[in-house]
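EI: anyone free to look at a 163-residue chain?
SC: sure, send it
EI:
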Amino acid sequence: MTIHPIGTSSIALYLSPSDLEERGLTGDTFSDEAALTLTRALCREAGICLEGTLEVDAYPGGDGLLVFAYVRPPRQIWFIFDSLPTLCAAARSLPALPPSAALFWWKDAWWLSLPGTERCAIHILSEYGTSLPSTPFREGQLAEYGRPVFDRQALEQLLLYDP
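SC: here you go
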């Protein structure tokens, strides 16, 4: 078995016929579901974290199995901040403020929403707050019980009040 990370969100995986045989599989009779399950398990064993929606392209054959796996960025990421000063410090640390950031108040915490495509902001904000992937359940709870503070440009608005 050979597994190579490609960047931070992709891998290339090759399993020889003997690797497949060890797992009770063959390259000729391989489904996409099996490729997905096997890829997740092998990445965990190798210590490679591929969290999120995983897309796989599997190329089975007599020479084994070649899999390219890519983690699709989540549609939205939520950050929880316990205090407003921490949230403002996080906003000040960003090189660019994402215009589509939204802010809610719920359960005695500040909830900041960012698109999953804002990779730089997500990495920096994770040093200040707790990140959670978007789920319909979480979004429903925030819509029903949370209090919207800013629906767009939340970080820019915050820095107007706390430069």
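EI: Residues 5 and 11 are 4 Å apart (CA to CA).
SC: 👍
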